[in-house]
Amino acid sequence: MCIFCKIVKDEIPANKVHENDDFLAFHDVNPKAPIHILVIPKNHIEKFQNATPELMAKITPFIQEVARILELDQRGYRLIVNNGEDGGQEVMHLHFHMLGGTKLLWPQLAPDENKKYL
Ligand code: AMP
Predict the structure, then answer these.
(1) Beta-bridge partners for 79
(2) Ligand 1 in contact with 82 (CB < 6 A)?
(3) Ligand 1 binding pocket includes 46 (Cβ within 6 Å)
(4) Of 36, 93, 95, 97, which residue is the catalytic one?
(5) What is the CA radius of gyration of the chain?
(6) Of all helices (H) and strands (E), which one includes residue 38?
(7) 22 closest CA partner among 67, 57, 71, 70
(8) What is the SS3 assignment for 25?
(9) pTM assigned to the model
(10) Is 91 in the pocket of ligand 1 (CB under 6 A)?
């Protein structure tokens, strides 16, 4: 079973923020911003490429609710989905990163790629 499925089943601990029947939001264990939340479907879906329109329709208001709970809705936040190998996905259970709590830099590129795009 994957690590996020174990979190869903309470087999390993997580600092949970919000959940409903379909989704769970919890703090990332290795935060890349002052607030770094992961939002996952409770059912195991490997990656964004496998997400359905129905899932996307349901997860949108859930993410918006998490933003309100954490008072990120007014100041803003960034959503990131790392999809597959080139996308840098390490945990193969679909997750949306919510980053906030500061004004984030943009663009975010790998250091050796910066010159190419600046
Ligand atoms: P990704 O590279 O998009 O697959 O991101 C995986 C994220 O999961 C990383 O930001 C990790 O810090 C985070 N992570 C891995 N294991 C855990 C865990 N047990 N609890 C919370 N976050 C985790």
Answers:
(1) 98
(2) yes
(3) no
(4) 95
(5) 15
(6) strand 35-41
(7) 57
(8) strand
(9) 0.94
(10) yes
Q: Which of 29, 91, 81, 87 is nearest to 55 (CA)?
A: 81
* 97 classed as catalytic: no
Q: Report the candidate in 39, 31, 40, 48 with the shortest Cα–Cα distance to residue 104.
A: 31
Q: How far apart (Å, rounded) are the C-alpha atoms in residues 79 and 67?
A: 11
| Cα 72 to Cα 70: distance, rounded to the nearest angstrom | 5
User: Token pair 């869903």 is at which residue?
Assistant: 8
> 25-84: per-residue pLDDT in tens?
999 999 999 999 999 999 999 999 999 999 999 999 999 999 999 999 999 999 999 999
Tokens of 90: 């390490």
Q: Measured between alpha carbons, how far is 6 from 16 in angstroms, rounded to an integer? A: 13
